[in-house]
Write a structure and sequence with these properties.
mainly alpha; 15 helices; globular
């Protein structure tokens, strides 16, 4: 165990404060500061992230204590995958048709992965995670207020695509985000943060506030007309109900659900196949200059992406190059839309099968680990964070088909950083979850 000097300890205590500021800046998006430097936009979150990374690198180089930080990490496999993802993306530039788009995509990916590394190295105590969770709750209130303002006053911030749009469009809530779909996906995660607060808090005031804010999240998601986000809330609630059931009822629920699903497939399979086939055939009937229904355009986006994926022999077209292909080499009409509108398809098309399988495996592993910790009869404060993380993951996975692209949604990387940090800290506290309080001075896991 390395012995830290006094200055070293003071710096280490300073990191969480810097990271809290970084998390707060995520919720401001580009609403405060946005400087166009040609190749990319520089705004508060990116400035603080770059400063935090530089500060951390300076410290570990000066103190030569990176091995100490690495030793405390309990999610090394996850971090190795993220490094592999970034390295694979860099190599994919060798066959990418647009190097510029590839570099832009790698820049965004690098920022997201940098945050995760900083979060895992910094948030090493339960107290850190609890503050992280609290910041998410508090800052979301501000975004909900802006969303209400968008809806009732038809006033949009300059960062929104609806700024200056016709009046009938300006009532869609966008808050600080680019469009209403991005905001809806964010609120899908936040819904479960508030619902977890309502369920687990011991104070009636927090319970009531959490429930009301969860309901408000749902209402605003409804106003955005994001069907995928509403589905995300629905699937998350089903998963939430399942984990809250007693063991006996869980078995009954699984058996009953399996029987109901099988019965539904047997009864409605013909109609489902017929409907799906008609949609696929309808998607081929439109010309490139025709206006397509939204669902047909989305199907064609997926068909194009699958075509590019197969043509690349499963290696992907190169980091950030799917939009280039959709714009210049589209096989099926897409209303001239150049983003996939599906996060997993976006990963598959750009980075190929290896990264896609790695991401899905990582996601399943994190979800399984959170559920395992949840079953360890931990305290209500731990359940508060674990339930928010688990259900947020379920909700996000479904709602991620709503935004045009997820790679540039910084809250996704911040949420992922929160989940990965949780798994790392809870793994370090394995076997002691009943005894560990949220606040602890002497333990790295508390």
């Amino acid at each position: 165990m390395a012995v830290f000097s006094k200055s070293n300890i003071e710096r280490k205590k300073l990191y969480p404060s810097i990271m809290y500021i970084l998390v707060i800046s995520t919720f401001l998006n580009q609403s405060l500061v946005s400087i166009d430097v040609g190749f990319f936009n520089l705004f508060l979150y990116r400035v603080v992230l770059i400063a935090a990374a530089a500060f951390f690198i300076f410290h570990i180089v000066k103190e030569k204590n990176l091995p100490q930080y690495w030793k405390e990490v309990n999610v090394k496999g996850v971090l190795f995958f993220l490094v592999f993802w970034l390295a694979y993306g860099a190599v994919s530039l060798l066959w990418a048709k647009s190097i510029i788009e590839g570099i832009k995509a790698l820049f965004l990916l690098g920022l997201g992965i940098s945050f995760i590394f900083l979060a895992v190295f910094t948030f090493t105590r339960m107290t850190h995670l609890f503050w992280f969770y609290g910041i998410w709750l508090f800052m979301t209130v501000m975004l909900l207020v802006i969303g209400l303002m968008n809806h009732f006053t038809q006033i949009q911030l300059p960062t929104s695509t609806l700024y200056g749009a016709p009046e009938y469009k300006r009532s869609y809530p966008t808050a600080v985000f680019f469009n209403q779909n991005d905001f809806a996906t964010f609120l899908t995660i936040s819904f479960f943060f508030y619902l977890s607060l309502a369920k687990n808090s011991k104070q009636e005031w927090f319970k009531t506030a959490g429930l009301l804010l969860a309901i408000l999240c749902t209402v605003i998601i409804y106003w955005t007309e994001s069907r995928a986000s509403l589905l995300g809330v629905g699937f998350g609630l089903v998963a939430y109900t399942y984990i809250l059931l007693p063991k006996v009822l869980k078995k009954i629920a699984v058996i009953g659900g399996t029987v109901a699903f099988t019965f539904g497939v047997l009864v409605f399979s013909g109609k489902i196949v017929e409907k799906f086939a008609s949609m696929l055939s309808a998607s081929d009937a439109y010309l490139s200059n025709e206006i397509l229904p939204s669902n047909i355009a989305r199907i064609n986006l997926l068909k194009n992406t699958l075509y590019y994926f197969v043509e690349s022999f499963g290696f992907g077209v190169g980091a950030g190059n799917i939009p280039f292909y959709l714009k210049n080499e589209s096989i099926y009409a897409t209303n001239h839309v150049v983003e996939v509108h599906n996060w997993l398809a976006e990963i598959m098309g750009n980075y190929g099968i290896f990264v896609l399988l790695g991401y899905v495996t990582m996601y399943a592993y994190l979800l399984f680990q959170l559920y395992k910790f949840y079953q360890a009869q931990c305290s209500w404060k731990h359940k508060l964070m674990l339930e928010a993380g688990m259900m947020g993951m379920v909700g996000f996975l479904v709602s991620s088909i709503s935004p045009s692209s997820v790679s540039n949604l910084f809250f996704h990387w911040v949420f992922l950083g929160f989940v990965i940090s949780m798994v790392s800290v809870f793994t370090g506290a394995k076997g002691k979850l009943r005894e560990i309080p949220v606040k602890e001075k002497d333990s790295n896991v508390a």
